[in-house]
Amino acid sequence: MSLQRYAKRRDTAEPAIIEALEQAGFDVWQRDEPDLFVRNPSWAPGMVQLLEVKTGRGKKLTVARDKRQEAQRNFIATTGTPIVRTPLEALKAMGVVA
Questions:
Q1: Per-residue pLDDT tens for 29-73?
Q2: Nearest to 25 by CA among 43, 10, 44
Q3: How far apart (Å, rounded) are the C-alpha atoms in residues 31 and 11?
Q4: In the chain, what are the domain boundaries?
Q5: What is the CATH number that goes with domain 14-93?
């Protein structure tokens, strides 16, 4: 068993995304894999939407990829978890805006 000896570094885009989702009436929980669990109080019990937050790099908003992210890429592909980089993308993923 391994002990995590340091805090997970959060994506810098997370606070603004969480704030936008909460203002839209969603409950939001920060997790490690994926980053956010989002729930609308009007949904049936047990229903949540997973969101993976990425902080883009440079003008093209590319994301660094290395060996450590292979499991994460597989999870996202298997579950269809949306990747969001901005509050607007998060609201679109949740169906709040078109």
A1: 999 878 999 999 999 999 999 999 988 665 555 555 666 678 888
A2: 43
A3: 12
A4: 14-93
A5: 3.40.1350.10
